[in-house]
Every structure is written in structure tokens, then in C-alpha cells.
């Protein structure tokens, strides 16, 4: 088939947008971290790009998106190992006119950000080397199989992964594959590594809220490629996904700060940023299957539910440092289930009718199965991976390193040079040398 330049151009742009989301995660999580661990938090996202990108080219894409023979319901094969031959494959065999390698790159960015999302649950306390090993193992035996279950479709109806092609559950851009998957894994790792020293007694507030807002903005911007790009074409489905991504995020951001105002007496910048991300998460599986009004309703529900869900860690006693469980796992679950209520074929004939469109509870049941399967597989396998790494090489840094700050102990760097400002400062303020003057002492307030 001849290459379609319009579709190809859109997917190239979308791929770049989705890749930008991982640095967006780095800023979002980095700003929410404490000053002594911001670099480590950002490094965990950037090394995910490096490791997962290579894995995807060598064998990840092949296992996720090729026929697995007798195991095709659960995993692909090695036909496209190392992408050999794809460089000469002009286009995909799905009528989109998109070169195969562009689709490979697009899907690589999804795998990358899924791994990066998990890191927020274990901020301040994970060995960097252990995290690198975890990314390699986790993307191989957790992400790749689930991506195959949901997104691989064979040439005949019913052929492919058991969730998408098999039972017909819907996930347009990654509610199960990315967000529920990452959230369940985050919960498992938070349990393996345990609580940070001093949590929840000591306040562990975000050190840089402008970073958080910048990260949320980059995520929102990149998410248009994430959702609308999943249409694999510059077409009407992409348009629906685009507007729904905008509207659901607006609804969720607003709902979150309303909950804050009612519950806490004030609306915060952290709240509106978190609400926006929750809305993006919730609309991801549903963006091409609901109407714009349905997207607003979905966003309002997801924003309010996630605003309450992030406090569950205090009641249940698990230290999910940056609320990956409350935003990504819960938001993904709500978004996936609401497809069963709000979806309509009037928007997309490739979808199905949910409860409100007269489709009964059939689709809702399929969505529930896909949610439960993803939760169970991701949580159990991640728990095993985390325990094995902890037993062999150790997953958590020492208490001394945690107190000193993982940036300086693991990376020999600090994000901010406070040395000259605080040198010699004590309680109540003492005299410290001023770098701006010729050694004259300057009063420094502690």
C-alpha cells in the first residue's frame, strides 16, 4: 500500500508528543519530591527512556504486536525480532498507509512512559541500579504481555490478544495497558520498599510547585498525541479523541479543586495539576468511544473520585510517595468502567454501546474483566519481581543515605547549590562567608 503522507505526518508528530510526556512526568514528579531527591526522581524517568527504548526495538515490539502461534492469546512471537525486515516494510497492513517503523516508535513511547509512571510511588528510597534492573524485567514480563492482550488484533475477527480481540473489551489509548498497569505495579513496589523514614509523621511537601505545573502542562500537551495519535490517522476518530481529551481534563481539574475547597477550605495549584492528570488518565481508554458531553461527565467523576482516593494511603498505611495509585490506578479503573456506561457507536462504529446507549450491561462486564485481569497480573508479578530484586541486590537505599538525600549519595549531584548560602548557618542564623563579597561575613537566617 502507498504511504499516506497525512497519516504518517500526524503519527510522527504524535510520537514526538508522547515521548515529551516522559520528561513531563520527570518535572511533575520532580517538583512533588523533596529537594534532596529531585534529580534521582527525574533520572528514573530518563533512564526508563534509555532502557525501554532499546528493549522495544530488540524484542519488545515483536512480542507485543506479532502472532504468537499457539500462545497468541497471551503473547506474540519473534518474527520482528530486532525490527529486521521492517525497514523495508513500506506500510502497516491495516489500510492506514503508515510506515511500520513509525508505528514501532509510537508504541515504544507508550511502553517508556508506563515504566516511568511507576517510579513516583517509590520516591526518595529506591536504589538506582535496582530500578534499572526492574525496568528491564518489568517491561518484558508485565507490560509486553498486557499490551498484547489488549492491542494485538489478528487478520480474522476474534484473533489476537484475549482481552481486545477475544472478549471485546475497549481500551483506545491505554487505560488498562498503561495506567491501571502502572498503578497496580506502583502499589506492589510501595509495599516491597516500605514507608519512607518519618512518613506519615513528617511533612513531605512538594519542593517546587512551578515544576509540578510545568510537568502537568507538558503532559496535557503531549497527551493529545497519546490519545488522538492512537487513531493512527488524521481522521474523524482522531478529532473525537482530541476534543474529548481536552474536555475531560477540564472537567477533572475543576472537580478536584472543588473537592479541595469543600474539604480543605482552599483550592491549590497541586490540586489543579493533579486533577488535570487524573482527567487525562480517565479519558485515555474512552476518548474515541464517548461524546464530548460524556467526556465532560467522565472528567468530573474521575476528578472527584481521585481527589478522595489519594488520601486512602494514609488510611491503609502504604507509602505511595507521589500518588501514583490514587491518580493512575484509580483514574484508569474509573475511566475503563465508565466506557461500559457512556460509550456509544454513534461516535465510533468500531466501539460498542454502553448502558446509557441501550447496550445493556454486556460492555460493562467486559470492561470489568479487563480491569480485574490487569490489576491482578500486574500487582502479583510486580510484587514477585520486586521481592526477588530486594532479596538479591537490595531495592532500598540505606537509612543514612535516605536521610542525607539520594541525589548526593547515589548521583553525586544536587539540584540546588545551597552550600555557599547556608555554610555555617545555625539555629537563629549565624555569620557565614558571602561569595558576593570579599569574604565579609553576612547574616544568614536559618
TrEMBL record:
UniProt keyword annotations, A-Z: Ammonia transport, Cell membrane, Membrane, Transmembrane, Transmembrane helix, Transport
Pfam families recorded: Ammonium_transp
GO molecular function, one term: ammonium channel activity
Domain Ammonium transporter AmtB-like: from-to ranges: 9-416
Complex formation: Homotrimer.
Role played: Involved in the uptake of ammonium/ammonia (NH(4)(+)/NH(3)).
PANTHER family associated with the record: AMMONIUM TRANSPORTER MEP2 (PTHR43029)
Protein's UniProt name: Ammonium transporter
Organism annotation: Thermomonospora umbrina
Upper classification of the organism: Bacteria, Bacillati, Actinomycetota, Actinomycetes, Streptosporangiales
Amino acid at each position: 500500500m502507498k504511504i499516506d503522507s497525512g497519516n504518517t505526518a500526524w503519527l510522527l508528530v504524535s510520537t514526538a508528543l508522547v515521548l515529551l510526556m516522559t520528561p513531563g512526568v520527570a518535572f511533575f514528579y520532580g517538583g512533588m519530591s523533596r529537594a534532596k531527591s529531585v534529580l534521582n526522581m527525574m533520572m528514573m524517568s530518563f533512564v526508563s527512556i534509555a532502557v525501554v527504548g532499546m528493549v522495544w526495538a530488540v524484542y519488545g515490539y515483536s512480542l507485543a504486536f506479532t502472532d504468537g502461534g499457539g500462545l497468541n492469546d497471551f503473547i506474540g512471537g519473534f518474527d520482528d525480532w530486532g525490527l529486521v525486515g521492517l525497514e523495508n516494510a513500506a506500510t502497516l497492513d491495516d489500510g492506514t498507509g503508515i510506515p511500520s517503523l513509525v508505528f514501532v516508535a509510537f508504541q515504544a513511547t507508550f511502553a517508556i512512559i508506563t515504566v516511568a509512571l511507576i517510579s513516583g510511588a517509590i520516591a526518595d528510597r529506591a536504589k538506582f541500579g535496582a530500578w534499572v534492573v526492574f525496568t528491564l524485567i518489568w517491561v518484558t514480563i508485565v507490560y509486553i504481555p498486557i499490551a498484547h492482550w489488549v492491542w494485538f488484533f489478528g487478520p480474522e475477527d476474534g484473533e489476537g490478544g484475549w482481552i481486545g480481540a477475544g472478549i471485546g473489551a475497549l481500551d483506545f489509548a491505554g487505560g488498562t495497558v498503561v495506567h491501571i498497569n502502572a498503578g497496580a505495579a506502583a502499589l506492589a513496589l510501595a509495599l516491597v520498599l516500605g514507608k519512607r523514614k518519618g512518613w506519615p509523621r513528617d511533612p513531605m511537601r512538594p519542593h517546587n510547585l512551578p515544576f509540578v505545573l510545568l510537568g502537568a502542562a507538558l503532559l496535557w500537551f503531549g497527551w493529545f498525541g497519546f490519545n488522538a495519535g492512537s487513531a493512527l490517522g488524521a481522521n474523524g476518530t482522531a478529532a473525537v479523541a482530541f476534543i474529548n481529551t481536552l474536555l475531560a481534563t477540564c472537567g477533572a481539574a475543576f472537580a478536584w479543586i472543588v473537592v479541595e475547597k469543600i474539604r480543605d477550605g482552599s483550592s491549590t495549584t497541586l490540586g489543579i495539576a493533579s486533577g488535570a492528570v487524573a482527567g487525562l488518565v480517565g479519558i485515555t481508554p474512552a476518548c474515541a468511544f464517548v461524546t464530548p458531553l460524556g467526556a465532560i461527565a467522565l472528567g468530573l467523576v474521575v476528578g472527584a473520585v481521585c481527589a478522595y482516593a489519594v488520601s486512602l494511603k494514609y488510611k491503609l498505611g502504604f507509602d505511595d510517595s507521589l500518588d501514583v495509585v490514587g491518580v493512575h490506578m484509580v483514574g484508569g479503573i474509573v475511566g475503563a468502567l465508565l466506557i461500559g456506561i457512556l460509550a456509544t457507536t454513534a461516535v465510533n462504529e468500531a466501539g460498542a454501546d454502553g448502558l446509557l446507549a441501550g447496550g445493556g450491561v454486556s460492555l460493562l462486564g467486559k470492561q470489568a474483566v479487563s480491569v480485574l485481569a490487569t490489576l491482578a497480573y500486574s500487582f502479583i508479578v510486580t510484587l514477585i519481581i520486586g521481592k526477588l530484586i530486594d532479596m538479591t541486590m537490595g531495592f532500598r537505599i540505606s537509612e543514612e543515605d535516605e536521610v542525607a538525600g539520594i541525589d548526593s549519595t547515589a548521583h553525586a549531584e544536587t539540584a540546588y547549590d545551597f552550600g555557599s548560602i547556608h555554610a555555617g548557618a545555625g539555629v537563629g542564623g549565624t555569620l557565614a562567608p558571602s561569595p558576593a563579597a570579599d569574604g565579609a561575613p553576612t547574616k544568614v537566617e536559618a
